[in-house]
Amino acid sequence: MQLTRTQVSRSGVRPTRASRRVLVAKAAKTANGPRVAIVGITGAVGQEFLTVLTERNFPYSSMKMLASARSAGKKQEFEGVSYTIEELTENSFNDVDIALFSAGGSISKKLGPIAAKAGAIVVDNSSAFRMTEGVPLVIPEVNPEAMSHIKVGKGGAIIANPNCSTIIALMAVTPLDRVANVKRMCVSTYQAASGAGAAAMEELRQQTRDVLDGKPAQPKIFPQQYAFNLFSHNSGMDVALGYNEEEMKLVKETRKIWNNPGIRITATCVRVPVMRAHAESINLEFEKDISEAQALEALAAFPGVSIINDRQNNRFPTPLDATTKDNVFVGRVRRDISRDDNKGLDLFVCGDQIKKGAALNAVQIAELLL
Predict the structure, then answer these.
(1) pLDDT at residue 17, rounded to an integer
(2) pLDDT mean over 110-116
(3) How far apart are CA 332 and CA 335, in angstroms?
(4) Residue 86: CB partners within 8 Å, gap ≥ 6?
(5) Pairing between β-strand 59-60 and β-strand 121-124 as defined by DSSP bridges
(6) DSSP string of 26-49?
(7) 269 noted as active-site residue
(8) Does residue 261 form part of some domain?
(9) Which of 164, 233, 269, 350 is catalytic?
(10) Are residues 335 and 320 in the same domain?
């Protein structure tokens, strides 16, 4: 059995010492904390922000819940307090230090710069600013230095949260790149309903019920049946190139995060009927030799990574292992037998799209601002 510091047992997975964290019962409301706003509070990621803020004991002095006009006036419970959801407007940010945005790209493009001009630091979960020159694109475990010049109290700014599939991939690949320098990366993703939001998750539930009851599936969010099916990712397609937007995000974002415009990347992104947590099959070519043992050692030492790599029992990461978990799970680490050298590896990765792929990464960015 091939295991490292993270062991597989009958009861599950034990995280490495580097990634182990004690959860607390409440976020830390304090007079000295930043003033926080959550933009898009009613969405799946907006709700997950609240969970993560609590789990990580994030300090705040005030909390503002923002959403569209149709949600304004509704109540949102957080830390034993009932907040009234406010309508998101251009005037929402005059008393905000950190704004966690997850309301879609068009809202971010319109209001992100306004919030930054008002003095707020925007941590944006959309694709609106990821490739914008001068806007840091950050995974805290990977490239925190990209945002080291931005702090609460030093003026407004925008920081972009990478795409979920990029975050999950680079959490696993970065420690290996630091050992042997990745030359080429080939990624196939298996992406859950959570990546398309709460409505897509409900569509998967309803279609599953209908199909099991002998009724026809009724596609609404996606153009074809989702239950008991899989299909090319539903993002926009570049017809001439043959790649969709999700695939190109992996290419372009990785180059920016690693500050390596020459890294060669190809991707195939597929939507699968899984409720929550993405999976990715990754093939890597390195500049230097790297053994399976070296790779597992590097992965075990990297914060935010857990290993499930039990060959004897054919036990490797699954989306259910990663669901609601902070860590990204890595396994099936093996030499690429299509090569005659020791410069190729394959691995399988699973990560919670809503958590580390979105809300957790954003809150970790916010922690670096303090």
Answers:
(1) 34
(2) 98
(3) 10
(4) 64, 65, 66, 67, 72, 92
(5) unpaired
(6) S-EE-TTSPEEEEETTTSHHHHHH
(7) no
(8) yes
(9) 164
(10) yes
At residue 11, the 3 state secondary structure works out as coil
- Concerning whether 278 is annotated as a catalytic residue, the answer is yes
Work out how many domains the chain is built from and give that number.
2
Domain that holds residue 202: 165-357
Half-sphere exposure of 176 (CA within 13 A, CB side): 32
* Interval 76-93 mean pLDDT: 96
Structure-token pair, residue 180: 């042997």
| Banded model confidence at residue 100, pLDDT cuts 50, 70, 90 | very high
Whether 244 contacts 233, CB under 8 Å: yes
Task: Please say if the pLDDT value at position 65 is more than 70.
Answer: yes
Residue 340 sits in a domain whose CATH number is: 3.30.360.10
Three-state SS string over 53-115 comes to HHHCCCEECEEEEEECCCCCCCEEEECCEEEECEECCCCCCCCCCEEEECCCHHHHHHHHHHH
Q: What confidence tens digit (pLDDT) does each residue in 236-294 have?
A: 888 999 999 999 999 999 999 999 999 999 999 999 999 999 999 999 999 999 999 99
Q: What is the DSSP string of 225-269?
A: --TT--EE-SS-B-TTT--BHHHHHHHHHHHHHTT-TT-EEEEEE
Asked whether residue 1 is assigned to any structural domain, the reply reads no
The torsion angles phi and psi of 367, rounded to 5 degrees, stand at -65, -35
Burial 290-327 (b: 16+ CB within 10 A, else e): beeebbbebbbebebbbbbbbeeeebbbbbebbbebbb
* Average pLDDT of span 154-159: 97
Instruction: Name the active-site residue from 233, 269, 278, 350.
Output: 278
Strand, coil or helix: 137: strand
- Mean pLDDT computed over every residue of the chain: 92
Statement to judge: residues 134 and 176 lie in one domain: no
141 plus 189 within the same structural domain: no
